[in-house]
Amino acid sequence: MPTPRRTKTARAKPSGSKAAGAKTGAKAAGTRTAQPRKARRPGPTPVEVPEDGRLWLLDVPFQTRPPGAVYDRARKVHVYSGPELLPELLPYRSQPFSWRRWLEDDLNGGPATLPDDLRPAPAMEPRPMQTEGAAAILAVARSEHGGTGARGMLLTDDVGTGKTLTAWLGILGVARDRGATNVLVLVDRPRQITVPHWVRTIRATGTEGLRVLICSPDELAHLLVRGRPRWRMDLVIADESHLYRNVETQRVQRFRRITRFADEHHKAPFVLNMTATPANHPAELTYLAPLLAQVHAEPTARWANFGERLAESGMPLVKNYGRWVWNERAAADPAEQSASTARLRGWLSEASPPLTLHRAAPWGPAPLDLMPVQLDLSEQAAYRTAWSAFQQAIADLAADRAVRSNPSAGVARGGAAVLRLRQKASMIRATTTAQWAVSTVAAGRQALISCEFLSAAAEPIADAVEASGVRVARLYGTAVSGKDLEAERLLFQRGLAPVVVFTPTTSLSLHAREMLGDGTFATDQPREGLMHNVRYSGLAGRQILGRSHRDGQVCPWWLAYAQNSVEETIAQIMIGRFKSANDTAGADSETLTAIAEALGVSWLPIDLLVGHGSDG
Question: Which pTM does this prediction carry?
């Protein structure tokens, strides 16, 4: 028989002991015994600014060691100390309007102007549509809401109508009116393309003495010090403002601190929100919370839980898997969804003057049609294998006891199964898409190919086209890869590469006759586009069409899909959404529900079907 284990008991201390008395006394006094604080380890020492010279902050690519420069661990940037920048370091000089240039100028007490900084940009002549839009922005900034000036506006003109110039002309007017000095312009990725686009517009139009900072979402952390804004901005342009809708992300948390989201209305900067595709659903318009709060004469804190505030106002919304979605009644009634969306839009559009502005493209929507791809026998076999594997994966989830008792446990696995099916189907059609591009070039047109995936679409398609002897501009990858995306874009625009394969959906100009930064123009060869991966979001699809169908240039587009497959069903569902030129907030929910039903995964949260992004 095993020996019983001896239980260890704590030895009681005498009630009169010093320790017991101290403890009792501390409890009686309601105080806590002070604990010695750990000494905080000092951080790295920043490189000193020379008394005779300048500290130059450099923009150095990853894993590059420029000669003569050192890495400043405190500022997390390469620097060079000296009266003049070495010639071999000129390529690494901080860019105009960048956070590095702002920090460099602050450290040195002012700017150092080099010849390249004075390079003029070709003048841009605004169209009447752009000057009228700028006047509308200024009118909003001058209007009063709740006893103070409007703290923002939503600009939703169609893709390709020239929102960039409209916005900058408007902001110049607001700056003059309010005596502003600092302006922040937030752009989309890839920054190698979007930043030069904004720099060109600003240089061509002028700054009128404003201090301008341009940065991408990935750079927002550099604009904060211990969670507080490094610089106080008077005006903010949030290009592609729908990027700041998901309140759970670090990107949005930083955006809110920098734009002083929670400030009282009269203390906040004027924020111009710009996007041709405001949201997939009304509850995603979280970036408009301060403006809607001002319209309702409420503090922004009242709108901190955006979905809950909308539901309180009578919107037919419920919380599901942590997200606000249409309730059961509204989900089954598109008319109620449209009415609710119109009501929200009316809060802004019915103000005087309207706090939102939308103008359709005067040259009409892009010509758009379906392109069925007939698979050969081997491709059909490969597709059947992929489809069977997908159906088996979904069946396994349905049979999993843990998933049945807790449906949320199968969400990630279900989403992964959908993604695998899409990637495999994409690979099967890659050769056909490459052949289409080669034949399009042979017919005298430049070909655009939009892809959602890298290794399952963009890379194999680009490789196959180049193997046929046709040069390709590759607009995918990141700055870490060392690829100059703006140089790649110009290869296509100048006709040196007649085919472009790209993954971005926004902030990218690929249209004919575009005026380039040096005053020359892109080729006038007609463009033709093909969406290799049909996006599951009507908003993303419309953005893609606008990459080449813009500024008065007409570009026809095709949606490719495998014939007699679930891709065909989904393409037919999506083509109507892509063609829509109406306010689409809320409409994508109905579309995604139809896609989920076609795939047999209607139990998945529908927003999981959107935003997988590239696989690379």
Answer: 0.75
